[in-house]
Structure formats: structure tokens, C-alpha cells
């Protein structure tokens, strides 16, 4: 009996050690997989953006030859994949201290006497702390990707209707969305190559004053209404 007892104890200890080792390996593999998800999302979004930008250019410049690209450009569904991915990453990266780090403050400190004491202002230190987290950085990247894709589609639709130059706008919008939007604004103000003129010299001022395409072709668009401008400004402010 004494000889058997020592032989059973090492076997039990060895079995427990192998079980703990296997469970630790599984946990490490799960942690590495979870850590790699933000990188995978960023890589996939980058590939989708590149393909979408090429489709926007082909659909705007050669709509008859590349009919599928033209339909892809005209459909708002082309913006859906990065937007859905952004919402998923935002939910995954959200934590109880997200708002407190981004906009620190309290109502008690703001309402207390003692002079001007503003609260809930964005803090660069808190934003830097948030961006140091991998999931938050991935959601921020996806947010920028959505904005850049929106700018590229808007410029492509305008270029398809007005014949404006588009290549430089898409190149800038791929990385710098606001710079691409500003370049597109300058291009439309200056007039791109092949831009159609809808008004004649006589009826231009008269037609614009009343909102009609007076003095131009029958299919010339009327002046954009004030409500449409306000809707576009509101949509831009959300981004």
C-alpha cells in the first residue's frame, strides 16, 4: 500500500498540470484572436475603400462602359459596409469610462459657486488615453473611412452630372477627406474640363433669380432650394 501511494500522486499532479497548460493555451489563443480583430477590420476596410474608389471613378467617367460601377456609385448602399463595421467596432470598444475620458466634468463642479468653471469639454489627454486602446483606435479609423468614402461618393456624383475633374479629389479623399472635399469645392467653382453650361448670358441672372433654368436647355436643373442646402449642411455636421 505504501509503494502504490507515491506512484499515484505524481500521475494525478501531472494530469492536472497538463489540463492547466491546455486551458492556458486556449485562453492565450482566444486573447490573440480578439486582439487581431481590429487589425483585420482595418485591413478589410482599406481594401474595400480602394475598390470603391476605383468603382466611383469608373462609374463617374465611363458610365456606359462600366454600368455596374455606375450603379454602385449611384446607390447609397455602397456606404453601408463601412458604416455597419464602424457601429460594430464602436459597440465593442465602448466602456463605462469612455464619455468621462472624452469629456470630463461634473454637474456639481459646474454649478458650484466660485467663478467661471466650464465642464464636459473635450480633453486631449482623455482622447489620447482612449486612442491608446486597440479597439477604440480601430473604431476611430473606421469613422474616418466612412467620412472619406462619403466625400468620394459625393464628388463622384457631382462629377458625373457636371463633367468636373475627379481624379485629384479621389486621391485626396482616400486619406484626407476634408482636403478632398475642399478640392472638389474649388473644382466646381472653377469649372472642370467638359463641365456643361446650363445658362446663357442673357437668361442666367433672370433664371437664377426665380429658380428656373431660363435661357438654357429644357433639362437644366433649377437652383438648389434653401431646404436642400440645410439638409446637406446638417448631414455634413453629423460627420
Compact summary:
It contains 11 helices and no strands. The protein has 239 residues and is an all-alpha fold.
Which characteristics define this entry?
239 residues
Protein model, in words:
By secondary structure, the protein is mainly alpha-helical. It is elongated and about 65 Å long. The termini are far apart.
SSE topology string:
HHHHHHHHHHH
Low-pLDDT segments, ≥5 res? 192-221
The overall strand count is: 0
- Global morphology: elongated
Number of helices: 11
Query: If you average the pLDDT, what whole number results?
Result: 76
Which percent band covers the strand fraction?
A: under 5%
What Rg is obtained from the alpha carbons, in whole angstroms? 29 Å
By secondary-structure content and strand pairing, the structural class works out as: mainly alpha
Report the helical percentage: over 70%
**Major sheet attributes:** none
Distance between the termini: 78 Å
